[in-house]
Write a structure and sequence with these properties.
The chain has helices spanning about 10, 20-40, 50-60, 70-90, 130-140, 165-175, 205-215, 250, 260-275, 285-290; strands at about 1-5, 45-50, 100-105, 105-110, 120-130, 145, 150-155, 160-165, 180, 185-190, 195-200, 220-225, 230-235, 240-245, 280-285, 295-300, 305-310. With about 300 residues, the chain is α/β, with parallel strands linked by helices.
Length: about 300
């Protein structure tokens, strides 16, 4: 099978965990154990998130003089290299030496008129108390929004329209290379009137980019790995229930929080609906079982409605 796996930025750096090379490598090692098992049997493309990482770089960046600031598209590119390096190295250490991997800097075209630019909702960086978040917003001109019990900076997250490097990705897959690409959702770019590309101040959601990539590559399965074992209704309440399987139209009709599970749901449902193929959402440590169909929330057009995990 040809499988696209999307690794959440929060799965590669757990909530509340300090941004450090050691913490990220430790979490990447968990993912690598699973991904190496999948790569032995299937063709594999890996997309990763970058919310905590790009937020950390942006926080460092904001301490510089105004004239020295790097825009978000450049910081997105930095996270592609940083996380791609860790993922490639850790998976490569678990596979035979002759199995090749490649990390590809990937640009993603977006529409500069996308309404997302008017309503930033993509959380990046660390969590703050409400008071600290609004203090940062006043000082640095940020947009902030609730994220669980705390607040985080939010930035524009336009929908990806085109994967610029789709041809070299296909070439690498034809040679059975494990491809790590579209990291952080891709480096956001747009076209000007002269059809020249320029960087855009945004962070593209990696789940939408992974779904677009899966569609373009005619993947058999889209796996979205996050920090929870399944999709839950009424999350965080006494009535929360884990979903075992669902058809895309029924699942997409549920109301999930924007910027968290909602883009994962919508991306997975869109892929399943348009291709009539499987998508699954679940925990980072369960990737092999998600591929086998024994873990996570399975999204499939033939599922007809919603089936919940049986209560114990």
């Amino acid at each position: 099978m040809r499988i696209i796996v999307a690794l959440g930025g929060n799965a590669l750096l757990k909530r509340g965990e300090r941004v450090s090379a050691a913490a990220q490598r430790s979490n990447v090692q968990i993912a690598a154990l699973q991904l190496a098992k999948v790569a032995v049997k299937h063709d594999l493309v890996i997309v990763h998130g970058n919310g905590p990482q790009v937020g950390f770089l942006a926080q460092q960046n904001s301490a510089q003089p105004e004239t020295n600031l790097f825009p978000l598209d450049v910081l997105d590119a930095e996270t592609q290299g940083m996380l791609g390096y860790l993922i490639e190295q850790e998976i490569g250490n678990l596979l035979p030496a002759e199995r090749s991997l490649a990390t590809l800097l990937t640009m993603v075209e977006v529409d500069p008129k996308d309404p997302a630019f008017a309503v930033p909702n993509k959380p990046i960086g660390p969590s703050y108390t409400k008071a600290d978040a609004f203090a940062q917003a006043r000082l640095k001109g940020w947009h902030v929004a609730p994220d669980g019990a705390n607040y985080r900076r939010v930035v524009a997250s336009p929908k990806p329209q085109r994967i610029v490097e789709i041809s070299p990705i296909r070439w690498l897959l034809e040679k059975h290379v494990i491809v790590i690409c579209a990291g952080g959702g891709g480096i956001p770019v747009a076209l000007n009137e002269e059809r020249r590309r320029y960087g855009v101040e945004a962070v593209v959601d990696k789940d939408y980019s992974a779904a677009l990539l899966a569609h373009e590559l005619e993947a058999d399965l889209l796996v979205i790995a996050t920090d929870v074992p399944a999709v839950f209704t009424n999350w965080g309440t006494s009535t929360q229930r884990a979903i075992l399987q669902a058809d895309p139209d029924t699942l997409a009709a549920f109301d999930f929080a924007a910027g968290t599970m909602e883009p994962k749901i919508q991306a997975a449902c869109e892929f399943s609906r348009t291709t009539q193929r499987r998508a699954v959402i679940g925990a980072l440590a369960d990737i092999e079982r998600m591929v086998d169909g024994t873990a996570g929330t399975l999204i499939l057009p033939q599922a007809a409605g919603i089936k919940y995990v049986a209560s114990r």
